[in-house]
Amino acid sequence: MQKILFIDPEKCSGCRICESVCSLFHEKVCNPTRARIHTVKWETVGLYVPMVCQQCETPLCEVVCPMHALKRDEKTSAVLIDYDLCVGCRLCVMFCPFGGISLDTKTGKVLKCDLCGGEPLCVKFCEPQALQYLDATAINLRKRRAAAEKFSDLMKKMLAV
Does domain 3-135 have CATH number 3.30.70.20? Predict the structure, then answer.
């Protein structure tokens, strides 16, 4: 069963532990700018949104890569970068519609989520559970339930009028 990194911004506290854990695991330094996940903050409204590669079904990053350095891992379904082929042209960074690919300014290397080989550490350390690694069907079911609850609330308000 395919799994997806599910992000619930309503649960995100903005602690940025996900960024620290990611950079520690992948780069061996605690430096959020070198993480593969980044928390975007809208402090005026109290909203924090973890942004990470969406592992798109048809990834633009893979399509635009002139060196064919991006390939899908059959086991995890993550789109991975082959650094032996990558020439650092950064087309993947420019064409990602979600900002899921970044550049490590220290090494010049392109960074993107690899799902930690199928066990995303950001999920394990996300205390409010804003990040979850779920079966794709479970996510569809959650979204349907949430939509049904919103529809039910709307109908109750309309009937009360």
Answer: yes
